[in-house]
């Protein structure tokens, strides 16, 4: 019974590790698109933030 629990824990960790890698790869592709969008948004929002901060 103890060996089964250890195997389950190892399998669960391994699966979650693989899932994390897949998510990172997916998010990297999405992240690159998001970063380029955010850079454009950042350029627009920065002056607005500065005017709000000034008040």
Automatic annotation (TrEMBL):
Superkingdom, natural source: Bacteria
Keyword Transmembrane: yes
Keyword list, A-Z: Membrane, Transmembrane, Transmembrane helix
Species this chain originates from: Neptunitalea chrysea
Residues annotated as transmembrane: 6-26
Protein name according to UniProt: Uncharacterized protein
Lineage of the organism: Bacteria, Pseudomonadati, Bacteroidota, Flavobacteriia, Flavobacteriales
